[in-house]
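Blinded run. Sample ID left blank on purpose so nobody reads anything into the name before looking at the predicted structure. Input follows.
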Amino acid sequence: MSGKVRIPALVVAVLALLLLPLGGAATGADGKPEVKLSKSQAGTGGSITVTGSGWRPDALLMMLICGQSSPDRGVIGGTNSCANSDGRAVTTDEKGAFSKKLPVVEPPQPCPCVVHVATVTGQKADADAAFLVAGHEVEPLPKEDTSGRLSVLTDTRLDGSSGPLTWFGAPPSRDFVFTVGNVGSLPVKDPVFQVGTSHGVFAPQWEEQQWRGTIEPGKKAQIELPVELSAGAHGDYTVSVKYGGKVLAEQPWGVGRPWGVTLFWILLFIVVPAAVFRIGMAVVDRVRPQGRSRPAGRWGSRPRSGGGGGHAGPRRSLRLPEVTVRMPKLSLSSTASSPHADADSDTRTNPTLPWFTPDADPGAEAGQLSAPQENSPTTPTRKGNP
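Blinded prediction complete.
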């Protein structure tokens, strides 16, 4: 029997299960995510590798180099103290870890500096790691005011509703309501809060608002701060409140789309062309000549009156059979009885019918109604004198 000690396979499996949690994603002592840097200092133009652990799986993070900051006090000046244009975005893996290079640039504020990592969407979380930008100016941090400290005690909310004008693009407005308590040793009089609104991944634009009142040590007060967005704003916004350089509370705000503006443009593109068309047709009706009668021709004739009626009949072309039927009839009795028939026939202008030539007009021989007689004095004869 050899002197080697054989470890049973079962014991090896138990040891592996016990040591497995030690290799997982590590978090800070207080349960917050951690950030580590490959270098503690570097000059501009270089780069550092930022690694993190303990974050949410598949979370989108933003890495920034910020001035006037420290890991214990955070970014005092907010994201305005960071080099926002040179930041980098990174997504955590299934274990909540990441590793990515970050270019070194000078922040707008002097050092002390940090590498600030924060979530972009979802639940808010951030972490800072101390970093020194070589060659960048260094100034001491502003003194922390310990006379009075405020802390949010209750959940925040947005009071108010949108009016009818907001549906047509008016600026949406709400009242940001929250309750704070004075956890310091001295009273806080007329505190000045910073209210900011952010849309998507953009940094909030901060605006100072002063609350009138005094909060005694150990007391609490309800704060109401007005918040207003720009005209036509819509989408998902986040309202944040800072006091003493720290973010006290955040509240999401979903703003609906101003459909009244869309409806206005649709009606504009429909009504304006229709109005222009109507005006153009009115101008055409006024400019074109009026009252000109169409001459009777091949395709039509003037309306004729019906028999016994005074109104005009339907238009139709004048045809040859109708002219033949309407010819005036000559009566023998009327010509013989009238003593002035010859005179009237000479002075009256006989109409020229369409199928006769002027030489063959029957009206020229209207006086001769019968064949010439043999005893007529005007008729020549060949017989001699008896």
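Unblinding after everyone has recorded impressions. The CA atoms of residues 110 and 137 lie 5 Å apart.
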